[in-house]
Structures are given as structure tokens and as C-alpha cells.
Write a structure and sequence with these properties.
By secondary structure, the protein is of the alpha/beta class. It has one domain: Rossmann fold, CATH 3.40.50. It contains 6 helices and 10 strands. α3 (98-106) runs antiparallel to α4 (117-127). The longest helix has 14 residues, at 149-162.
Length: 240
């Protein structure tokens, strides 16, 4: 969904608005405060879409619970489901299609040189051109796996500048650091502790991470917390 104007990713919700637009509950995922079952729900029995619990998402929403008028960045592109959920809680949402901009800047699957300073600067201006301390939270999802070291470090540094102190970011990484290709996903928020995960095939990562390398990557932040999912995704909550 392409949005006009310089703030192309911004979606606004009224300050203090109640969560009246929260998405409807899918079959197999309970409503209310209880955690969803630790298993997939597959529409029609197919493997392409799954709804699963997310401890990382629960932690992220636990940080902003009871607040309103916050500014959140979603790097997964403009999903109407995520827009409705976040703005229904009374927050503003900016959306950037991070992987599309990556492909446009560095070629399909980021094949061009990701260490070129000019290309890195151009990419940051296209994907993360925001003032310092602009965001109260960032939904990074799994996009950092597709960045080579020079670009990755520049993106993490820019994210650190654009979030306010004590805010939270949520990022996903595959836990097997020896894979040549990993599943590519879109993440849609169904509840404060449940995600619909849509798989789009396989994609080659630029690098994969273990806990130690992630701690090094986010060393400039206050803290990190790790959760491992059944599909071997490492969910990481990073506190600025």
C-alpha cells in the first residue's frame, strides 16, 4: 500500500483511542488474555499461512501497554492488518517496505555490493530517513538477515538513533546459522501475543547469527532478550 507525501509510511490513530479495531480471532487461537496454543493453525490445512504464539511480540506490547499516542515503525511494508491493530490501540504507525527498497538499491536479493558507502547512504535515505529519537518502538521482523556486515552495521546504528531511550525493537533471526537459504515470511499481528506467519518461499541470507553474535550486533543497546520458536526462529527484544 503506497502512501502519498513525505511521510509515506505514516498511519495515524487517535490519541487514547480504544482497541476497537483489533482483528477478529481465527479458529484455533483463543481470545482474551490467555496465551494461544503452542502450535500452528493452518487455514485449510495448508502450510503457507500459520498463526502461532509469539513471546517476543507479547513482550513488545507489554512495553507499550496502557500508553497511547506512541509512534511505531514497521519494516515489513504496509499491512492493513498491522495498521488496523496498531492504530486501533491509539498509536501512530509508519511502514517501510524494507526488502523492496533493499532490492531496488542493491539488486534482487541484495546481490550488489552492500559495502559501497554511496549505496549505503542512498539506502538509508530511502528506508530510514527519520529524525533522531522519532520512534517509540520498531517492528524489524526478519529483514536484518539479508544485510551484509557493512550495511547491517549502518542500519543498526541508524535504528539506534531513530528510537527514543528505553524503547523496544523486535527482530527475528533463524537459529540455524549453517543454512544456505531460509524461509521468507510476512508477519501479521493477530493478537498481542499471536502472529499470522505467511511464507513466501526461500531466500539467501547474507549472514546468520547465534546468541553471541546478536549480543555483539546490539552491544550499543541497553539489553537483549531471546525467545526460540518451534520453527527455529529466534525472537529478539532489544531495549534502547
Amino acid at each position: 500500500m503506497e502512501l502519498p507525501g513525505p511521510l509515506k509510511g505514516m498511519m495515524g490513530g487517535p490519541r487514547g483511542a480504544p482497541p476497537a479495531n483489533a482483528p477478529a480471532k481465527p479458529a484455533g487461537v483463543p481470545s482474551g488474555p490467555g496465551r494461544p496454543p503452542d502450535s500452528f493453525w493452518r487455514p485449510g490445512g495448508g502450510p503457507a499461512n500459520a498463526v502461532r504464539p509469539s513471546r517476543g511480540l507479547e513482550e513488545f506490547f507489554g512495553y507499550i501497554h496502557g500508553q497511547s499516542g506512541l509512534t511505531i515503525l514497521d519494516l515489513g511494508g504496509a499491512s492493513q492488518q498491522n495498521v488496523s491493530f496498531i492504530t486501533g490501540l491509539g498509536h501512530r504507525l509508519y511502514s517501510e517496505d524494507f526488502l523492496r527498497i533493499l532490492s531496488e538499491t542493491f539488486g534482487e536479493n541484495g546481490a550488489a555490493d552492500q559495502s559501497n558507502p554511496g549505496r549505503i547512504d542512498y539506502f538509508l535515505r530511502q528506508a530510514l530517513d527519520y529524525p533522531p529519537a522519532h520512534f517509540d518502538g520498531v517492528l524489524i521482523w526478519d529483514v536484518l538477515e539479508y544485510l551484509a556486515p557493512a550495511l547491517l552495521n549502518a542500519v543498526v546504528e541508524r535504528l539506534h538513533k531513530t528510537v527514543r531511550p528505553k524503547s523496544y525493537m523486535l527482530a527475528f533471526f533463524h537459529s540455524d546459522d549453517k543454512l544456505e537459504a531460509v524461509p521468507s515470511y510476512t508477519f501479521r499481528i493477530r493478537q498481542m501475543n499471536a502472529l499470522e506467519v505467511v511464507r513466501h518461499g526461500m531466500r539467501r541470507p547474507e549472514q546468520l547469527f547465534n546468541n553471541r553474535s546478536l549480543e555483539k550486533l546490539f552491544a550499543g543497546f541497553e539489553s537483549q532478550k531471546f525467545f526460540l520458536t518451534r520453527e527455529r526462529l529466534r525472537e529478539v527484544i532489544i531495549k534502547a
